[in-house]
Amino acid sequence: xxxxxxxxxxxxxxxxxxxxxxxxxxxxxxxxxxxxxxxxxxxxxxxxxxxxxxxxxxxxxxxxxxxxxxxxxxxxxxxxxxxxxxxxxxxxxxxxxxxxxxxxxxxxxxxxxxxxxxxxxxxxxxxxxxxxxxxxxxxxxxxxxxxxxxxxxxxxxxxxxxxxxxxxxxxxxxxxxxxxxxxxxxxxxxxxxxxxxxxxxxxxxxxxxxxxxxxxxxxxxxxxxxxxxxxxxxxxxxxxxxxxxxxxxxxxxxxxxxxxxxxxxxxxxxxxxxxxxxxxxxxxxxxxxxxxxxxxxxxxxxxxxxxxxxxxxxxxxxxxxxxxxxxxxxxxxxxxxxxxxxxxxxxxxxxxxxxxxxxxxxxxxxxxxxxxxxxxxxxxxxxxxxxxxxxxxxxxxxxxxxxxxxxxxxxxxxx
Length: 415
Prior knowledge:
Number of helices: 13
Oligomer: single chain
C-alpha cells in the first residue's frame, strides 16, 4: 500500500497578523545618553541612588554588558569608564557638535561604539535618550529663552542643528537588525535647582519652548525611520507638573515622595542632593517607561517593576497599595508606535514536494520557514496539519511515520 502526500499551498487565510507569536527577548540592551542614563556609580550620589540602567540590570537582569570591574579591565576609557560595556551614555554629553564641543555624544563616539556593540557584542536593542543638556541652563540657550531674548525662529534653528546630529547618531546605530527606542528629553525646568536659579514661572514656561520644539522634531525623525518613540517630556510633566502648576508629592506604594527637593539624608525625595538628577524612585518609574516602550514595540516580554520593588529599591518601606496609574496614567500612553503596515507572514514549505508518494510506515520529513516583516523569523511557531489526520507536528521541521493511508493536503500555519 502506498500513501500519496500533497504538500500544501502557502499559508493564506489561516495566517494571523493580529498578535505576536511569542516574546522576542532582549539579548543585550545598549544605550546612548547623558547623566540621566549614565551609571550613577560614576558620581558621588551613586552611593545612595541608581540610574534606570542600573535598576534594570539589578532588578530585571537586563544585560548591558559587563562592568569594567566584572570584565577585569578596570576602566573601559571614555565615555563608558567603569560602567556597563554597552551603556555609552556619559555625564554631561550633548547631541549637538560645534567647534569647541568635546562633550558631544558624537565627539565621544557614543554612536560608533554602540554600532560596534550591535555588530560584534550581541546588542539586540538600543535606547537613545539624549538632548536635555543641549537645551539646559548648564550647556544650552535656556537663559536666553527664559529672559525672552530668543525668537521662535532662533529656537527652531538651534533645535534643527541638534536634529542633524541626532539623525547621524540614529543612522550610525541602525545596523545589524537592532531594535531602537527613541526618547525625547526631560524638561530641566522641572529640576529644583533650575526652579531656584530661574524662579519666574513665566520665564520657565518660555524655556519649555525649547523642549517642546525638540519633541516635535525628534518625534518626526523617529516616525520617518519607523521607530517607536517614548515621550519622556510628557511623562515627567505628569510627575513634576509644569511651571506655576508644580506637583508637590508623588505617592508610590503608599510612600509620599517630595518631588520638589533632593536630600541625601532623605530617601523620600525625588532628586539626589544636587537637585538635578532624579533619585532611585523616579528612575524606577523611568525604568518602567523604557520597558513599556520596548515591550509594546518589540514584544520583549519583560515584566514591569512593581511599585513595591521601586520603593524598596529606593531604600524606603512600602506602606500602601499601588497608586501611580491614578497620578500619571498608564505608561503605554507615552509610547508612540511606528505606523508600519502590518503585513501577513510568509510561510514556505520546503519538503515534502507536492505530489510525493511514500510507503506506509516510511518516515516523512517536513520542513518550512515562516517570516514576518514586523516579528522576523517565526519558523519555530509553525503548526502543521493534515487534511486527514489533523495536527501532525509543530516547528520548522519534524518527521513522522504515523500518517494514515490516503491523499493528504498538508498545511503549514503560523499566527
